[in-house]
Amino acid sequence: MVSSKDVAKYAGVSQTTVSRVVNTPHLVKKPTLQKVMAAIDALNYIPDANARSLVQKRTHTIALISGPLSNPFFVETTTAIVNVANANGFRINVHFSNDQNLAELYNVIFENKVDGIILSSILLDDPAFEKLEKSGIPFITFNRKHKSDKYFVEMDNVQAGYLSAEHLLSLGHENLCWIGGPLEMSTFKGRYDGFLKAAEKLEAQVKPERIFITDTSAEDLYQTFLTLESMAEKPTAIISATDAIALHMMDFYISAGYRVPEDISIIGIDNVATSRHASIQLTTVGISSTVGLGQLAIEKLIHMIQQKNSSCIRITENVRLFERNTTLERK
């Protein structure tokens, strides 16, 4: 195997100079840099990442714990996080969480040295948060946050739930249905609280049998659809706590012969790219900014790592309604 010593001999420079070219090329004069790079290419030299990490006391690796790729929100955020990290010289170790394997994932990450951790898996009362703080590793959560209200980037979930309910109520829908995930997650709890807040303010009756707290799997959502179908008085509109839930419900209703929005209005929350597709045009609520939560969070984390800045990040992005073709005035 070719070593840095071999490269130094081939290029006629010191081994220290080779190390500088590999680790801090911007500090090396251009003629020397070109000479060493030519030697690296000629000998097909591959630097030892582990050795370099020991010298720099960095791994240039960030751990990401993302939600499942069955949700398009996490497809988009994972892509953005990986792209931004790579552009800044970091690798991303991606782990996907189903909220049942969190303890195992945390152990894996703590056992393998990383420069930072970005995660969307945190629960409101997650005991791992204290471990994250004590680890000394810079970290940030996105989309969800811990009850301590620290180190997070989120949308205004309460306002998102409020706007979704307000929109449907303004269209004359009184028989609303709420479908969301477990309330142990700040995202779902905030959006649910906002929904209730709007219903109370606008004096809308919320029937308990039309509130569904699910595990958000396709199977569980289909059972929710069957329950709605069995009701004598069916809802005229559905508030979905995520676009992923809304897209599933659209699929179930359309497959059963319903027209959206003529027979049933459906609104989501997140404003993922799929929702904007010309063939879907889902009415939804999303952040006002053009910069997504994943991109914003990874940029903040990289700044924390590079500047060795441990200041507490608290970012709640404003939201707005994106009215499209899946909601209609009740006649």
From TrEMBL:
PANTHER family: HTH-TYPE TRANSCRIPTIONAL REGULATOR GALS, LACI-RELATED TRANSCRIPTIONAL REPRESSOR. SMART domains: HTH_LACI. Residues 5-46 form the HTH cro/C1-type domain. Keywords: DNA-binding, Transcription, Transcription regulation. Transmembrane segments: none annotated. InterPro entries: Cro/C1-type_HTH (IPR001387), HTH_LacI (IPR000843), LacI/GalR-like_sensor (IPR046335), Lambda_DNA-bd_dom_sf (IPR010982), Peripla_BP_I (IPR028082). This is LacI family DNA-binding transcriptional regulator. SUPFAM superfamilies: lambda repressor-like DNA-binding domains, Periplasmic binding protein-like I. One of its GO terms (molecular function) is DNA binding. CDD domains: HTH_LacI, PBP1_LacI_sugar_binding-like. Residues 2-56 form the HTH lacI-type domain.
